[in-house]
Each structure stands twice: as structure tokens, then as C-alpha cells.
Amino acid sequence: MTYQNPYPDTWRPGAEYSGAELLEQLQAVVAWASPDVILWPDGHDRHPDHRAVHTLMTKVSPALTGVRHWTYLVHGSLEWPLPKGHHPAWPLVPPLLIHLQPGWSYLRLTPMATAKKLAAIMAYPSQMRVLSHFMRAFAKANELYRQITRL
Predict the structure, then answer these.
(1) Residue 117: which of 129, 108, 126 has the closest Cα?
(2) Overall number of domains in the chain
(3) Which domain holds residue 114?
(4) What are phi and psi for residue 129, nearest 5 degrees?
(5) Is the backbone of residue 148 left (phi > 0), alpha (psi -120 to 50) or beta?
(6) How far does the chain reach from its first CA to its final CA, in angstroms?
(7) What is the pLDDT along the chain (151 residues), one digit of tens a residue?
(8) Residues 108 and 46 grouped into a single domain
(9) Which one in 19, 59, 70, 87 has a CA-CA gap of 20 to 30 Å to 51?
């Protein structure tokens, strides 16, 4: 049995749900957008959906010349980020084992940018009902990312 995309306002309504189809659509979207920078979940993210996106992007991105590639973490470890809750003046640092990976960088945020990030996080009421303490912990004084130089 195959499943198809039932949503009319998507890239390919009616398309089959499969890895090959998803990869083809991702390649088409990236070619259409012609980006200078692409950000996607890091391969060390603990969420399987995020790792799947990482795997797909590593198949798409080598064909893109002149594009900078950066990754980020959402689910870095069971107890990350710390401390939980809203602490906008504290830095977001890599999880214990991942900080040993080379290439992690920090982008300092202004207090206004941190407040806007918190507002964006809070715009997802279903996530906030269940994961409020976890989600608010991402609105810190910086962003954490890793530039991918070799794929």
C-alpha cells in the first residue's frame, strides 16, 4: 500500500510518500530557491526526523556550489539545553559530548533578537503545552551552529 500527499497547498500534491520522492522534491525546492546559505539539523541531533533531514541534505548539498552549509541542534542530549526554562542572558552551549566535535560556533544575539526568538517559540501552543520548560531554554543569548565544510 502506498500513501500520497493529501494536502493541496504543498510542493507536489498527490505525490507518493517515499524517501525517493522526498529527495526529489527537496532537490527541486533547493534548485528553485537557489540559496546562498542552507541550515539543517545536525547529524548528532537525537530526534530521528531531524537525522533523516540531515541525511537527505547531505545527498542534496554536494551538488550546490558556492552555498554555505550550517547545521544546528534541537535535541542534543537528554538534558540539553541547560538550564531549562527561560534564561535569556545565559549562553547556549553544546551538549557535553557534542562540544568535542570540531566546528561549533556562536552567534551572539541582541536582547531584542532573543525576545523575538522566544515569541516565535511561543507561537506553537501545542509544543508549549507539553514542552514549555524545554522550548523556552532555547531563547538564550546566542545561537549555536556548525559550518559544514566537507560533505
Answers:
(1) 108
(2) 2
(3) 35-148
(4) -60, -35
(5) beta
(6) 35
(7) 889 999 999 999 999 999 899 999 999 999 899 999 999 999 889 999 999 999 999 888 877 778 888 999 888 887 889 889 999 999 998 887 666 677 888 999 999 999 999 999 999 999 899 999 999 999 999 999 988 876 5
(8) yes
(9) 87
Cell 507539553 found at: 130
The arrangement of strands across the sheet holding 142-148 comes to 37-41, 68-72, 142-148, 104-108
- Residue linked to cell 546566542: 142
Specify whether 73 is located in the same domain as 89.
Answer: yes
Residues 28 and 40 in one domain: no
Pairing status of strand 142-148 against strand 104-108: antiparallel
- Cα angle 15, 18, 24 (rounded to 5 degrees) comes to 70
* Claim to verify: residue 43 and residue 22 sit in the same structural domain: no
By C-alpha distance, which of 51, 29, 33, 32 is closest to 42?
51
